[in-house]
Structures are given as C-alpha cells and as structure tokens.
UniProtKB/TrEMBL annotation:
Protein name in the entry: 2-methoxy-6-polyprenyl-1,4-benzoquinol methylase, mitochondrial
GO cellular component, one term: extrinsic component of mitochondrial inner membrane
The UniProt record lists the keyword Endoplasmic reticulum: no
CDD domains per record: AdoMet_MTases
Chain sites annotated for binding S-adenosyl-L-methionine: T117, D171, D199, A200
GO BP terms, alphabetized: methylation
Length: 317
C-alpha cells in the first residue's frame, strides 16, 4: 500500500513542478460555467512592480496568485488522498480541533475561505446538526414530568428541523471546488452548502454577511495577508468570529523533522508555498499582532501537536 501511494505522490510532485515552471504570464480570469459554482471578480493591478516569494523563487507579486493556482490545479483530484496518506490522518484531528474551538450553534452562516474541497464546511454542517439533535434530546429529557403525548408533540414540533446552518466554500481554484462538490454529492450533502470561486484578498460578498470566517492552511498562499485579514473583517457580522488554522513554528527537533518531511517532500502544494512568505509569519505573536492590527479583538492562539500547527481566533466587535 505504501509503495503505490509513494509513487502517486512522486508523480504528482513531478507534474506540479512542470506546471509551475511552464505557467504563462497572462492574468487569471476566473470563470466557471458548471452549475453551483459562482465566479469571482478579477485581480487588481495595484501590486505591479513589487516582488514576493514563491517557494525559493523571488517573483513579481502579480504572478504569485497564478502560480499558486497552477499548483493546486495540478493536485486537485489527488489532494485529499495525499493529505490522508502522508499526514497519517493527523490533518483530520487538526480540523476537528478547529470545530471544537469554534463550537458553532445551529443557524449560523460560515464562510470557509480557501476552502478547497470542503473539509471544514462538511464538519461545520455535521457539527451544527449534531448540536441541534443534542439540544432537542436535552430539552425533552428536562421535561420528564410531561405525559407521553406531550413528549411526542415536542418531537413533532421539531420535525421542521433546526435553524438552517449554511456554509459557503470560497476558493480561488475552481478545480478544487469541483472535486469538493463531487464529494458533497457523493456524501448526500445537498442543502446548506454552496461553492464560490473567489479571491481571499477581494471576496465577492457584501459587508456583514457571515457569523464565522475560517481559513485553514490557506493564509500562507495569500500574496497580501493584511488585505485578506481586512476582507475577513469586512464580511463578518458584528460579533462574528475569525479562525485561522495554519502551520506554526516548531521548536522540538523531532517534530520539526517530521514537519519538514510532510510540508516539503510529501505535499508539493505546501512545499512550494510555505518556504516563502509564510515563514516570517510563523511566529505566533507576529501573526496575532497582524490580526489585531486588522481590527479584530480578543485575539488568541492555540498550539496543536507540539506547535506544528496553531489556531488563531479573533472577534469583530
């Protein structure tokens, strides 16, 4: 089993590298005719003339988004399998921890930015459904003095279901969204979920629309992180919560070695991007200050798995 998976990873790594070096210099014009996927606005030209990092290269800022797009496009169909195989499933625990910290209540609206194939949104919808069912059971249990008829009526009155929780998966790469939409259809997730092609730096949503904003393993891919944070603040409702799950600074030598193997050798997407701009933001306090400067309050962070990843949280007041 390990040998075929390793061959798959090496093949995708090779394909990804070829795509990066042969990417055209033209502008991305995102559109998608497939049902259920909405297109976003085009990039602005405000970053022309400045440089940034992509992997170990220094490139013009306006090229980074396109290069990141090409990397994800090349691995979209295999991304979930590779994540499971090469992280030994640990990425699932990290995402579960994000949901437990979030603790969303039924009826909330989530924006899952850089949501890719929908992992966070799937968990959000399942979590809110489970939360509603648990609340209903506790409600009935607390009224044990009621007659059986009254208890039955309690269940009947709840047959309309919970307040509708909604998740919007927003990603710049339509191929990742296409794979995610196929996963949702296969899992029977047909309500409360939508897919939007969009740039984290210029979200195609009105102000004050969402209760929760998440970005999991995506902030490092953004060219202008400060702009993405400002957009997160803009689309959140007052009282809304920002949550970012991202790789952090590992101090334990053994864990650092495992982290390097995972992020640089096994998953080409991470290896190409994380070697560049995100390195300077891996220090938890530095990123915490950036979130505060964007306008969020009560900002804090939580280390997971010895500091391999961290979750930053903040609120819009």
């Amino acid at each position: 089993m390990a040998a075929p998976i390793r061959k798959l990873v090496l093949r995708v790594l090779s394909d990804s590298t070829r795509n990066i070096h042969h990417v055209s210099r033209c502008r991305l014009k995102h559109s998608c005719c497939r049902a259920g996927i909405t297109s976003c606005r085009e990039y602005s030209d405000s970053s022309e003339g400045r440089s940034t990092h992509f992997g170990f290269q220094t490139i013009p800022e306006e090229e980074k988004a396109e290069k990141v797009y090409k990397v994800f496009e090349s691995v979209a169909s295999k991304y979930d399998v590779m994540n499971d195989a090469m992280s030994l499933g640990i990425h699932r625990l990290w995402k579960d921890s994000l949901l437990h910290i979030m603790n969303p209540q039924p009826g909330l609206r989530l924006l899952d930015t850089a949501g890719g194939t929908g992992d966070i949104s799937f968990r959000f919808l399942e979590y809110t459904r489970s939360m509603y069912n648990r609340q209903q059971r506790l409600k009935v249990k607390s009224q044990q003095t009621l007659s059986w008829k009254d208890i039955t009526n309690q269940y009947i009155s709840g047959e309309e279901g919970p307040p509708e929780s909604r998740a919007v998966v927003c990603d710049i790469n339509k191929e990742m969204l296409k794979v995610g939409k196929q996963r949702a259809e296969k899992a029977g997730i047909t309500t409360g979920l939508s897919w939007v092609v969009g740039d984290a730096e210029e979200l195609p949503f009105d102000d004050d629309q969402f209760d929760i904003y998440t970005i999991a393993f995506g902030i490092r891919n953004v060219t202008h992180i400060e702009q993405a944070l400002q957009e997160a603040l803009r689309v959140l409702k007052p009282g809304g919560r920002f949550l970012c799950l991202e790789f952090s600074k590992v101090h334990n030598p053994l864990l650092a070695s495992l982290y390097d193997t995972y992020s640089f050798q096994m998953i080409p997407v991470l290896g190409e991007v994380i070697a560049g701009d995100w390195k300077s933001y891996q220090y938890l306090e530095t990123f915490k200050e950036m979130i505060e400067e964007a306008g969020f309050f009560c900002v804090q962070y939580f280390n997971l798995t010895g500091g391999i990843v961290a979750i930053h949280s903040g609120f819009k007041l």
